[in-house]
């Protein structure tokens, strides 16, 4: 949201259209934020819809025009000025992780903090407005990327998204009735629990179930079985909700 | 307030999360008054005997948000729905949608109940676009319950035919 708000104001003011129009007549500005990436062409150049695997076309520094290195390139290697976020980069690339379901969350956190130290707006308070803007976008993007990759559920769903698979918004017509009955039973049992021990017991079972699902999802994603991964992630969603309800119940019972 | 309320009420109301009071809930979540009414006073929460011949059970889930909904109907000999119960684990809009569905179904014939649309539910509850899928879930639950009842009647009829032969 943060980056969108800022970009929108800039677009409104026409500031973006004035820049980068000199050499090749194209000024392409990107709004990052959704799974679907869109490039905003402000001048003559027309951009195509871009996937996550494409390398950035504008891989030159906006200030010194030298080629940029790395995906994503946060800073220019020559003049060291901060660059706008690269829309083609996935959250995995941004945080320097392998695109895999198994993730070392401690390493993830370290990388996240390292990058925030370099890119946070606090470091750019004396820089140009443009650099401050880029820094804000980077920081918001880093937060989003970190939050998404931190938890198995959001990480798995994101991986599916990268492959173009999404979970529909409606009822699951192909749902397993036994699963739904089990979910009903667990939810009801949790609701009717009178003691913290009971709620705790349900919490433990749910946690065990989630661990099992995590392993299964990992296997499915490794083998590229997207359909199976999707079904398992749906199950994980249901049980993650139950886990949240266990926490609420436990605090109620205190 | 939440705890006191929960203890005063019977099981049905325990279904909903009572940690915050109604005015806070309204302010925080931006739910419409009608949704809050169903949330605070859900009608027809409970279960019917799913093994009973005149009971139809619909069990549906929404994968995107992880909501689960169970809707049951009890039909009399003339094909009229004399009782309807629900149990929903999910957001306020989902609870309200299923609560409203059971209210509307009572007293209707099977065919009339089939005419209940998610758009009617959404309109009545003033659901915002992001919550329209909750009303859809309720409609699917209604259809599932009615289908289950019909299937049971067919099975009964077949059994009767076999018995007479």
What does this protein look like?
The complex is a heterodimer of chains A (254) and B (165). Chain A is mainly alpha-helical and 254 residues long. Chain A has helices at 2-13, 15-18, 91-94, 105-119, 129-150, 152-162, 177-192, 196-222, 226-253; strands at 28-31, 38-41. A two-stranded antiparallel sheet of chain A has the order 1-2. In chain A, helix 7 (177-192) runs parallel beside helix 9 (226-253). The longest helix of chain A is centred in the last third of the chain and has 28 residues, at 226-253. In chain A, 29% of the residues are buried. Mean pLDDT of chain A is 81; it is low at 1-55. Chain B has 165 residues and is α+β, with helices and mostly antiparallel strands. Chain B is 52% helix and 16% strand. The N and C termini of chain B lie far apart (63 Å). The model of chain B is unreliable at 1-18 (pLDDT under 50).
Summarize the SSE layout with pairings.
The complex is a heterodimer of chains A (254) and B (165).
Chain A: H1 2-13, H2 15-18, E1 28-31, E2 38-41, H3 91-94, H4 105-119, H5 129-150, H6 152-162, H7 177-192, H8 196-222, H9 226-253
Antiparallel strand pairs in A: 1-2
Helix pairs in contact in A: 4-5, 5-6, 6-9, 7-9, 8-9
Chain B: H1 2-8, H2 11-14, H3 22-29, H4 33-40, E1 55-62, E2 67-75, E3 81-89, H5 92-105, H6 110-113, H7 118-125, H8 132-164
Antiparallel strand pairs in B: 1-2, 2-3
Helix pairs in contact in B: 4-5, 5-8, 7-8
Order of helices and strands of chain A: HHEEHHHHHHH
The oligomeric state of the chains shown is heterodimer
Sheet/helix structural class of chain A: mainly alpha
The residue ranges of chain A in which pLDDT falls below 50 over 5 or more consecutive positions are 1-55
Q: Element order, helices and strands of chain B?
A: HHHHEEEHHHH
User: What is the strand arrangement across the widest sheet of chain A?
Assistant: 1-2
Overall pLDDT metric of chain A: 81
Portion of residues in beta strands of chain B equals: 15-25%
Characterize the largest beta sheet of chain A: strand count, sense, and whether it forms a barrel: 2 strands, antiparallel
Biggest interface, CB < 8 A: A-B, 27 and 27 residues
